[in-house]
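ok here's the first one, seq then struct tokens
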Amino acid sequence: MAGVKSAANTVKTLLRAAERPPQIPGTKLTASTPPTQLDLFDYCFYYDTLAPTPQQLQHSADVFRASNHSPIQMWTASEFRTIPMSDMPEVTFLGRSNSGKSSLLNAIMEKSMCYTSAKLGRTTTLNAYGIGGKKGGEAKVVLVDTPGYGKGSDEEWGEQIIKYLTKRK
């Protein structure tokens, strides 16, 4: 019973913390401090690098923007050995079963390329999508959707993902 009360208190504490306004580094909130309108940059901290410039943000938006030539399905593989060789950079999305990896990729690509479902284990293969392609050219970056791990997953999927992560060059 003590564990349940402790968990309930933790949840209450987290909810109270979520209701408080975020504190901007270097400022101190008091009861008389008026509410501040925060924008996205107030939540982003850049310790090792500078914040992206407007030109860099525009370039990023251009790469991810859907067009007639992007995104495209590059390959689907149920086994590591069947993945075609490529010199394009790949970004792999990993996570628990039904955590929203495919939905996130659809949102990033601004197009429903990945199958989604409320049912666990919908994605059963490694699926690669090329983005940033222009007419007559190949994709600039490959986004890889993976099967989830945990409930609803298959042990073989995990083995293939580990092979992909450790052996893909």
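and now the second one, same deal
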Amino acid sequence: MSLFINIFMLAHLSSDIRMFVLLGNPITLRSLLISSLFFSVNHWSRYQ
């Protein structure tokens, strides 16, 4: 179940990254990556 959630989140995140790359805004992309990294850390620490 968590694997499906991770795949869904990765697909959603990759589509957001593609949109931001097309817009050409590296600052927004960097903040998106940092926030997704913190979300992943919180997710793994909660379900480990």
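notes on #2: The mean pLDDT is 72. Residues 6 and 40 are 9 Å apart (CA to CA).
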